[in-house]
Specification:
globular, 206 residues, alpha/beta, disordered N terminus
Length: 206
């Protein structure tokens, strides 16, 4: 398990991994307005499947603290409650530019899992519900969707529910995050200057 230092966008981390590992297919769980998706479209040759419910979840007891108020682990001084309809519209408009390179699936991740073929993805980026044990369950459930040597990754590892989930699946994350795993050891300078402290990832050998 790797965590990477210096807050300078998850997008540069994913782009670097894509370039260096020759990724062709990716799955993003939780896209909001598509900031990460569209960066990858512009800067890689990836084909992406993206999943988002874009809905109020009155049946989810973990919904309110994530989407209607500022989560205690979230940075910044301001918070605007999520407008799911506006977010979906903005994403779909932006996705038109990329045609069939983006496949959109609307729904909650664990409800649509059967729509994703097994062993079809080079990486999965987890950025949907950030509660525990949801993150843990999502990681474990979607692991079968990765190709051999595929990569599980996500952001907001500094959020306690996310970190707890990740550590229960992959083990403890050490203090010297950038030195933990050989995948980026030879790019240490790049790691320290460009990668996001919120990013985590782990190679899955199946």
């Amino acid at each position: 398990m790797v965590g990477v230092k210096n807050p300078n966008t998850r997008m540069k981390c994913l782009r670097w991994l894509s370039d260096n590992y020759g990724w062709k297919t990716g799955l993003e769980l939780g896209v909001k307005i598509g900031e990460t998706t569209f960066h990858l479209m512009k800067n890689t040759k990836l084909n992406m499947t993206v999943v988002d419910a874009w809905e109020v979840q009155n049946d989810n007891p973990e919904y309110h603290w994530q989407y209607n108020e500022k989560p205690q682990w979230s940075g910044g001084d301001t918070f605007v409650p999520w407008d799911h309809n506006a977010n979906e519209q903005k994403f779909r408009e932006g996705a038109k530019e990329w045609g069939d390179r983006i496949k959109i699936i609307k729904g909650r991740s664990l409800a649509i899992i059967d729509q994703i073929p097994d062993k079809s993805m080079d990486f999965i980026f987890h950025d949907s519900d950030h509660s525990y044990p949801f993150v843990k369950n999502e990681i474990e459930s979607f692991m079968c969707k990765l190709k051999e040597g595929g990569v599980i990754c996500g952001d907001d590892i500094t959020w306690q529910p996310v970190r707890q989930s990740v550590e229960e699946v992959f083990g403890k994350i050490g203090k010297e995050w950038a030195k933990m795993f050989g995948i980026i050891k030879h790019k240490k300078k790049l790691v320290e200057s460009n990668f996001n402290s919120d990013i985590y990832y782990n190679i899955i050998d199946q």
